[in-house]
Amino acid sequence: MLSRQFLREHTEEVREALDARGVEDVDLDRVLAIDEEWRGLKARGDELRHERNEVSSRIGELKAEGREEDAKAAIERSAALKEEIGEVEERADELEHELDVRLLEIPNVPHESVPVGEDESDNVEVRREGFEDLRDLPEPVVPHYDLGEALDILDFERGAKVTGGGFYFLKGDGARLEHALIQFMLDLHREQGYTDVFPPVPISSASMTGTGQLPKFADDAYRVGGSNDEPYDEDDLWLCPTAEVPVTNMYRDDILLDEDLPVKHQAYTPNFRREAGEHGTETRGLVRVHQFDKVELVNFVRPEASDDRLEGLLDEAEETLRRLGLPYRILRMCTADLGFAPAEKFDIEVWAPADDMAEGPAAGGRWLEVSSASNFEAFQARRAGLRYRPERHESAECLHTLNASGTAVGRVMVAVLEYYQNPDGTVTIPDALRPYMGGTEVIEGHEPLGESAVGAGRKE
Q1: N vs C: which end of the chain shows fewer Cβ within 10 Å?
Q2: Short-list 301, 342, 296, 288, CA closest to 317
Q3: Spans of all domains in the chain
Q4: Which residues are catalytic?
């Protein structure tokens, strides 16, 4: 979150940032008024405590001098001061709580380099990669959901039966491909200097607040043991929406040393989001689902290093797609599409050639976001108490956090199934994944099981 001092000293900058983001539900004037009243009460409390200390110290002297009436008056004044101090502190505490709640609802200030825009159409395409020598694709390219069911490696019907809409089964080579992608990504990022962590999947409200998921995105998260319609507290647990949350909060309220930085962690987790299937743009298949796998890259750096580290982080995430031979593009996100917590963000979108569900290159297809490389600067660090000490004798200060998906496994699988499919309905395994698939070069599919499979590819 933004510091109170920053709000006081950069009020117009914050106001302009809110306007550029299109944020209308933050009453900045009310926040500043609360802060001003709170500071006035804190000063008044200090004055009253100082006076009470002086009065209290006089009581003994007055009694020793035999001035009982004056001592009695001093005792009464001390009691009155104590009561007034209590009232002032109670009001100050109320204001501080309201101020803390309102501060958590203010988004980060965009970096000066972020383009101003009104919606996602104002995002800036930085470059495209991998389109120089495209594979010869079938005509037409079969969407991954139809292809996956024909090969019997994706089963959406049984996933819905077991859990509900937005869930699915991967079977046979589909499951093997998922595992292969995860292990490939972990091995790749380990080469890039990342240390593996395997975090808890349930996450506390305090951790969700630390990275900015709460209170802003409470409706999008899966709450454990409670309804999202009910108030939550710090003891509540949530299913992991992204490994960014537990990994960033590993060092919550800790002080790292300068020699510890930079810290680069990677984590694979399953992720859960209620909002995933509610956009109405692509509800079939693996693109918008409520459970998905992802390898997340989280960085902790010195403030002066975060701009350069964002470029390095983006390159590290891109390397996944380069090695898989998948075409993609890089977008620089504008103010309106920046998200709540980032100060600066780049999206990596892989090209999936089936359908014309969104604008793509000349060959058709659509773009799928598989990673967002974000620099949060001190925004998350201030919420979560993430600090470092530049020198052992110096005061601790907020470090900077960054993260990127390295990448979203399900959407990369979509791109693999569509880009590497063959005219005969099989799928060629990218070279980089074959060692993780036991040398398998082609997914040829499986015979479906059960009576319902008769007439759908299985012979009696």
Answers
A1: C
A2: 296
A3: 4-103, 120-451
A4: 273, 288, 369, 372, 411
377 burial type by CB count under 10 A (0-12 exposed, 13-18 middle, 19+ buried): buried
Assign domain 120-451 to its CATH superfamily. Answer: Bira Bifunctional Protein; Domain 2 (3.30.930.10)
Tens place of pLDDT per residue across the chain (460 aa): 999 999 999 999 999 999 999 999 999 999 999 999 999 999 999 999 999 999 988 888 888 888 888 889 999 999 999 999 999 999 999 999 999 999 999 999 999 999 999 999 999 999 999 999 999 999 999 999 999 999 999 999 999 999 999 999 999 999 999 999 999 999 999 999 999 999 999 999 999 999 999 998 999 999 998 777 788 887 899 999 999 999 999 999 999 999 999 999 999 999 999 875 444 445 689 999 999 999 999 999 999 999 999 999 999 999 999 999 999 999 999 999 999 999 999 999 999 999 654 444 545 789 999 999 999 999 999 999 999 999 888 999 999 999 999 999 999 999 999 999 999 999 999 999 999 999 999 999 888 877 766 555 544 4
4-103: what CATH class? mainly alpha
